Amino acid sequence: MLPFPLPSLLAVVTTLGVVLGVVGILLCVRVLLVKPEDLTSSRPVRLGIATVPKAAYLKLLAFAALLAVPAAAVAVANYHVFEGVEEVRGCAGCHTMWPMVNDMQDPQSDTLAARHFRSRWIAERQCYHRHSDYGLSGTANAKMEGYRHLARYVTRTYPEPIRLRGRYLNRNCLNCHAAMAKFEQVPSHHTVGDRLDANRMTCLNCHGLAHPSPADRTPGSSGYARLMLPPALREPR
Amino acid sequence: MNLTVQAVGAIVGFLVTTLFVVHPTPSLMALFVFVAQPLFLIVGLMYLKRVLRELRERDVL
User: Fold this and answer.
1) Quick check: A18 contacting B, CB < 8 Å?
2) Is A3 a domain residue?
3) What residues make up the domain containing A116?
4) What ipTM did this prediction achieve?
5) What's the pLDDT tens digit per position in B9-61?
């Protein structure tokens, strides 16, 4: 048992990212200050265990400033692009998603998202789990969709209420539910099983809304102001 | 070794990247994804081109 709590991955990524950014900027400034005569200088420069001519030292510096440190900084920052967006806070970063997040955390709501959240049926990364299709291609598609959403959001080229582009695959529900005895006990699930498998009908036909209705998410509607409050993110209770 | 353009480009990339790491908002994410990353790539390619040219001038390659 350690005498101190381990820092979260997010804290490590943030610290490392800042360190790399500052080091990168300082190295680049040093590269900018290189004079032509420095490159012909044979004055030795001590680098810990090695001593190299100043010209070689400056070339190593340029390599670090323009290739090595940028590669490391991009790798670290991509944590937010590839991992951070899988968290609910990643979705809640865009105000267009606030109605979904607020509703999901609302203990009084009867939407499927809210029921899954308060029952802890999905313990973490609730949005990503239900909106990324299974398999590698599903994950890749979700990321590509994320880039499209990002571009549309920052250029303000989206209409409200936002709508899901494409189809929500029943497989995302069935992957968990189909194996449950409770699911198998419902006769209608067997009656429409083929249609559900082929995505010719959706689970929402019988099980209600997944999120607040488009009418509630339309600016000016009665529920809009309540749904558009900045969400306070919390764990399921 | 005149790498002024590359160094300035990298500084811009580092500034955007650092801001994004500290404060990952949608706007900064867009700047990082669509500006900083391509900028780092361009800077890296320009630098490699310069290195290759210098090596060829010295008959190393």
Assistant:
1) yes
2) no
3) 96-227
4) 0.94
5) 999 999 999 999 998 888 999 999 999 999 999 999 999 999 999 899 988 87
